[in-house]
Write a structure and sequence with these properties.
The structure is a homodimer. By secondary structure, chain A is of the alpha/beta class. In chain A, about 45% of the residues lie in helices and about 15% in strands. In chain A, strands 2-1-3-4-5-11 form a six-stranded parallel beta sheet, with helices on both faces. The interface between A and B is large, with 56 and 56 residues. Chain A binds a DNA duplex through helix 2 and helix 4. Chains A, B: It comes from Flavobacterium resistens.
DNA sequence: TTTCAACACTACCACGTTTTCGTAAACCAA
DNA sequence: TTGGTTTACGAAAACGTGGTAGTGTTGAAA
């Protein structure tokens, strides 16, 4: 059990000063070649690596970025992390992850914990509870301390910062339009409760597509689901009544549940019921029938978010506090992936 | 943009020494009540929080643990992270994640990066390439530096450390036995290439179950798949030949592909073909028919791994270097989740 | 002999904490 | 007054770096 070697130990061993060792390793010309090579050889032999913590303290930057997301066991969020990690790694950053579990308190706690020197900047997606409460003081605070924040997917207009989103409204519009193009008239929207920002936007797109096509907007065809488990009952009732011939589901879990329910009732997908889901995940791909989805590339969002954050971090290097806070909101394009659940 | 306040700034502002401030905040009795309260009030007002980096440097512990896994967009691994995060958070640790992308080099790089002071200990699952090469020097090195490592799922006997695994052999045995109990005679095994440790063990369990039931072990029924995309062709050929009436697939991706292929050919699952998969993920649950799986609770593994690691970290607190390295290997129980793909 | 530069290295500070040790002032007893 | 004990605080070291600013020696040019 040999602890990691430090500059001090090398200095002592070679009987030179710490600064000499430091400079030798950074190939400073101040140090004579003989000493320099001796030190380098010694350091290499003992596999010297500068201590990250000490560097962080000294440089006031940790070279790591914090991610705060509602949950990780979720295809979309894991792809985002993947995307962030790729870019972060390329730039020598590591990634610290905290989960809010969709709880406001955990989100605040985790942010405070990380903001205290552990990371250089945040990439985050708001928890449901935070969106519901509309309380963003923890984020404002972090930003006020000069720590850059990039929000993605679940964002809010109440905070000024860089953002990466998809055009939820336009994407929903496109999906619904494609259903209409296929001759569907009674299109249901299966969505979540309203306070989740994206849910609202997708509803807007749905409504607009209907109206633009002269189809009356029927409140009864909007099914708001808080818990997936209760979904099945509601759906089957409506299906029995043959209230709709197509569904636009706001996520793939809803979509697959609907398909299963319909199949049990002897309805055929897509003949009797066409289904499109938001968020392209594995379920859609491997479900039977496979589900047409509006792709939402988490990886691209992660890439972009990381790029924006790192750019801001490196720019800050000019410590003259220029404060040119020209925040941008990046919109990631989506497209429809047609599969078996639509014709 | 007010930077975070430091002890030094508080000291200057209140015209006392840094030590006085530090002690006041820790409620030391050395400091008179008046001063103490004054400092505390001031600190509270400016929302003082000790800087984590400085604390880490001083205490030589970072209160964060590193996770290295092959990939994150994978249900099993995300559940493990989830499990680790829960326990870590409870104990005031944060979680740093690095992805190896199943690459040896990235695994080494990431470990070196984190080992340099950024974290107190590792939780990891080996990359395919590492298992293939059998080169574990980076892990040995980290352990020699006195940094505890807990390995899970993809482990190796070449490294002495705490481990969390499932009894792959027994679990596979159980699955195959249940197929046999249902009257299946020609059971195929769809698995990965051999160097992935778990693949080998599952094959062993499969073989043993067959032999114990007097069923001849037929090499032709073992289908090794390196790439999921080529899977379909191989499978369909064998299905045409009606070479088997049941399949034990080593992961759910293989299983769902097999079911889809069979369905296309007009075969019914489970009547014509029973399917069991390893690893309980979302695909199995939402596939049609849903797939019987051997559950492998990633969350429990993560919980356990985190507990083991943290226990070791806190125990090390007694710096008398006792070195009682009684490493243990924890086995997480599995059980069969019966669904529609078997009768 | 003086002056100057090059050389080869060391001292010191800062980063933000915690902690050990020290000490001045006040109080008390003798 | 002396000696001792509190009380209340401060100085400084330590954790591991890296950069700036010296410092002392040597040799050579003036």
């Amino acid at each position: 059990m040999k602890r990691k070697i430090t500059l001090k130990q090398i200095a002592k061993e070679l009987d030179v000063s710490i600064s000499t060792v430091s400079k030798s390793l950074r190939n400073s010309l101040e140090i004579g070649e003989e000493t320099r090579l001796k030190v380098q050889a010694f350091a290499k032999f003992y596999n010297y690596k500068p201590n990250n913590i000490a560097l962080s303290l000294k440089n006031r930057k940790t070279k790591s970025i914090g991610i705060i997301i509602p949950e990780i066991v979720h295809h979309f969020f894991s792809t985002v992390i993947n995307g962030v990690e790729q870019v972060a790694n390329e730039h020598g950053y590591s990634v610290v992850i905290c989960l809010s579990d969709d709880s406001f308190d955990k989100e605040v706690l985790n942010m405070e914990m990380l903001a205290n020197g552990s990371i250089d900047g945040f990439i985050m997606s708001l928890s449901k509870e935070t969106q519901f409460k509309g309380d963003f003081h923890h984020i404002t605070e972090v930003i006020n301390q000069g720590m850059p924040v990039v929000m993605f997917d679940r964002v809010t207009n109440d905070i000024l910062c860089d953002k990466v989103i998809i055009d939820d409204k336009a994407a929903a519009y496109e999906a619904v339009q494609s259903l209409i193009d296929n001759g569907r008239k009674k299109i249901a929207l299966v969505t979540t409760v309203d306070y989740v920002s994206v849910g609202k936007l997708r509803t807007d797109g749905y409504e607009k597509a209907l109206l633009d096509n002269g189809i009356p907007f029927n409140e009864d065809l909007i099914i708001k689901i808080e818990d997936v488990d209760t979904c099945e009952i509601t759906i089957s009732e409506l299906l029995h009544a043959r209230a709709f011939d197509a569904v636009f589901a706001v996520n793939e879990l809803f979509a697959v549940t609907i398909i299963k329910t319909a199949s049990k009732m002897g309805l055929k997908v897509p003949e009797d019921l066409a289904v499109i889901a938001f968020t392209d995940g594995i379920i859609s791909k491997y479900s039977t029938p496979s589900i047409t989805t509006v792709s939402q590339s988490g990886e691209k969002m992660g890439n972009k978010a990381a790029k924006m954050l790192i750019e801001r971090l490196e720019a800050e290097h000019d410590d003259d506090e220029e404060e040119n806070e020209n925040y941008t909101t990046e919109v990631i394009e989506t497209h429809l992936i047609k599969r078996e659940s639509t014709d």
